[in-house]
Amino acid sequence: xxxxxxxxxxxxxxGMWLFLFTELLLFGGLFILYAVYLAxxxxxxxxxxxxxxVTFGATNTIVLLTSSLMAAMAVTSIKRxxxxxxxxxxxxxxxxxxxxxxxxxxxxxxxxxxxxYPGSPKLVAGPPGESVFFGLYYITTGLHGVHVIxxxxxxxxxxxxxxxxxxNKGDNVALENGTLYWHLVxxxxxxxxxxxxLIL
Amino acid sequence: xxxxxxxxxxxxxxxxxxxxxxxxxxxxxxxxKRIGLLYLYSVLGFFLVGVVLGLLLRIELMAPGRxxxxxxxxxxxxxxxxxxxxxxFIIPGIPASFGNLVMPIQIGARDVAFPKLNLFSWWLYAIxxxxxxxxxxxxxxxxxxxxxxxxxxxxxxxxxxxLAVFGVFVLGFSSILTGINFVTTIHRLRAExxxxxxxxxxxxxxxxxxxxxxxxxxxxxxxxxxxxxxxVLGTGLFDPGRGGDPIMFQHLFxxxxxxxxxxxxLPAMGVISEIIPVFSRKPIFGYKMIAFSSIAIxxxxxxxxxxxxxxxxxxxxxxxxxxFLTFIVAIPSAIKVxxxxxxxxxxSISLEAPMLFALSFILxxxxxxxxxxxxxxxxxxxxxxxxxFVVGHFHYVxxxxxxxxxxxxxxxxxxxxxxxxxREKPAIVGWALMxxxxxxxxxxxxxxxxxxxxxRYYDYLPEFANLNLVATVGSxxxxxxxxxxxxxxxxxxxxxxxxxxxPWNGATLEWTVATPPPTENFEEDPVVTHAPYDFNKGVGIx
Amino acid sequence: xxxxxxxxxEHIVSYKKLIAIWVTLLVLTVATVLITxxxxxxxxxxxxxxxxxxxxxxxxxxxxxxxxxxRLFRTILFVALVTLAIFIGxxxxxxxxx
Lengths: 200, 542, 98
Known about the structure:
Radius of gyration of chain B: 23 Å
CATH superfamily of chain B: Cytochrome c oxidase-like, subunit I domain
Largest sheet of chain C: none
CATH class of chain B: Mainly Alpha
Strand content of chain B: under 5%
Shape of chain B: globular
Largest interface: A-C, 51 and 51 residues
Order of helices and strands of chain C: HHH
Number of strands of chain B: 0
Number of strands of chain C: 0
Oligomer: heterotrimer
C-alpha cells in the first residue's frame, strides 16, 4: 500500500461494541427461554434453584466483579505507560478467571454426582419444570464458561503483546477492546447469579 | 496481444497491481474487491447448486406419485434446497458480494474498516459451506426437516441435523462479521463531504441490513445450539414430555428468520434504487423517504415474526398482535415502490439489461408483497398456511425480488470491475425467458396453494396434476433463461468488449474511478460536493 | 475523515474511581442476596433484576468507559437493549395468554 495505515481507535471500539451486542443477543435468547419457563413453572424454578449453592454463586460473582475491576485498571495503567502494573493486573484478571472456572467445575461435578445433568434419569423422572430449569442452567452457564475461557485466551494474548511492547501507552485500543470482551463475561454473570441462584 | 483478445484487463488495477500472484493472492487477500469476488463466485456457485436441486424437485412434482425419487429423498432434497439457497446464497448474496465490491468505493473509502475481519468472514463462509456439504454425505445423511428445523422432528430424526445446523451456525458468524464491518465502515470511513444525506441508497440499504445481521443473527445461533443440545445432550427444553414447549423453538427460530428476509431484500432494494435513477436519467424521487424506509423496514421487520406461527398453537392475542404489526411493515416497502415508479415518470428510460431486471423486480416483488398481505392477515393465512401459496409468495419476493436484483447488479456493476462487458441481446433474451419461466412456475404455485395443495408433501391429489406440470415446464424455461444470462455474463466479463469508465453515466463515486479500479480505489481521497443522483453535476473533486 | 486528532484527549479513569465502583458493586451484590431472602413473592424477581441492571449500568458506564464515549455508543447500546426487550416482551403476548 502506498499510503500508511492510519489507526482509528473510535472505529475499533465501535466494532467491538457491535460485537458485544451480538453476545448480548446470544445470551438474550437463553434469557427469553428462562423468562418464559419461569412464568410457567415458578415453584419448580424455586425448588430447583434451592439446589444450587448460593455461596459458590456469590463467590463467583465477587470473583468476576474483581476480575472486571482489574481489567479496567489495566486499561488505566497502560494509558499511563505503566507496563509492569498492566501485566500484573492482567495476570490478576486471569487468576480470577481461573478461580471462577475451578468453582464452576466443582459445582458441576457435584451436580453430576447427584444425578443432575441434561437428560439424566433423575431429571426425566422428576417434575418437568425442574428438568427445564437445569437444562437452561447447564446451557447458560456452559456457554458462559466457554466465554470465560475465550476471554481468558484473548487477555493472555493481549498480555503477551503488552510484554513485547506492541501494546503500549500510545497504542492500546486492543487492550481496551479485550477488556470490553471480558466485561461482557462479567455482565452476563451479573444476571445469571440472581436468576439461577437467588430465585428461592 | 490486443485488448479484445486478451482475457485479462491490461491496465494496472486491483487484478494485478498488488504484486502478488496465484490463488494465495486471492484467498488471503484483504482487498474488499477481491473478497467481494470470492463471495460472488461462492454464492453464485451455490445458487446454481440450489437451482439444480429445485429443478429435481420440480421433476418429481411433475406428475402424481413417484417420478424420479422416493419420499425420503424428496424430504432431504427440499431441505437442502432451502438451506443452500437461504444460507449459502441469499443471505450473504448481495451484501457480501456487491456490498463488498461497491460500498467502500461509493462512500469514498479505500477499504472497509476491518479488512482482515472481512477476509475472515469469507473463510467462515467457506468453512460453514464445507460443514453443511459434509453433513449431506455423512452420518444419517442429508437433513429432512425442512430448512426451518422444527422440533420435535429435528430433535429426533436420524439424519445429520446436528452437523448441518452447526454449519449454519458458522455461516451465521460470517454474516455477523459482515454486518459489524459494514456499520463501522459506513460510520467511520466516509470521505469528506459524504454526509449521511448524500450516501447512495445502496449504502443506506446495506447499513440497515447490517444492523439486522448484528442484532438478529445471534438468536438463530443460540437456537441452533439448543437443537444440537436437544439431540446430543437430551436437554428437553423443547420437549413437552420434559416440560419444554415446541412453540418456543418456533419463536426463537423466527425471531431471527423473519428479520433475515429483510437481510435478503433490503440490499436488493438498494440495488434497484441505484439502477432506476441511472437508467431513467433522473434523480431518485424521495431520497429521504427511501433512506428512512430502509431503516423502518429493518425496525418494523423485527416486530412481526409471529406471523409464521398463526397455526402453531400460539395465543389468539399473539395472533392478532402479530397480524396487525405485519401490515405496518408493508408501508415502508410500498413507499419504495411508489418512489421508484415516480422516478420513472418523465424520465429518459433506457431499457438495457440492468434496467430490465430492475423493472421486473418492481413487478415481481410487488406481487410477492401482495401475497404476503394475504399471508400476514391471520384470517386468510389459516387457509393458505403451509400450502404452495407460501412457496409461491416467498419465491416471488426472494427470487423475483432478490434474485432478479442480484442479476441486475451483476449486469450493472460487474463490467466495471472486470473491465469488459456482456452482450446486450443475449442478456435481454435470457432475461425474457427468466421472466416468463418464473411466472409460469410460481404464479401456478400460488393458484395450487389456494386450491389446497400442501407444501413439503411428497405427493399430491390428482386434481393438482395439470398445474404441477405447467410449473415444471415453467422451471425449465426459467432455467434456460438463467443459463443464457450466466453464460453471457461469464463470456462477456472475461472476453467481451472493453467497458470504459462510466458508460452508464452513473453519478455515484464508483463511476469516477478507473475501470477496473486500482487496489487503492482512489488516487486521492475524494471530496464530495453533491447528491448521489445529480446527473447534471457529475461527481468527484470540483 | 475523522482521525484521532479530532478525538477528545485520552480520558483515563482513576484507580480510585474504579475501586469505588467495585465497592459499590459488592454492596449491590449483598443487597441482591438480601432482597431475595425477603418475602416478596414474584416481586423478588423484579427486584433482583432491577439491582442487576443497576450493577450492569455501573460496569458499562465506568469499567467499560461508556460514560466517556461519544453519544453514538450510548444510542446503539439503547437500540440493542430495546431489541432484546422486544424479543422477550412480544414472546409474552403468546406465553401469557395461552
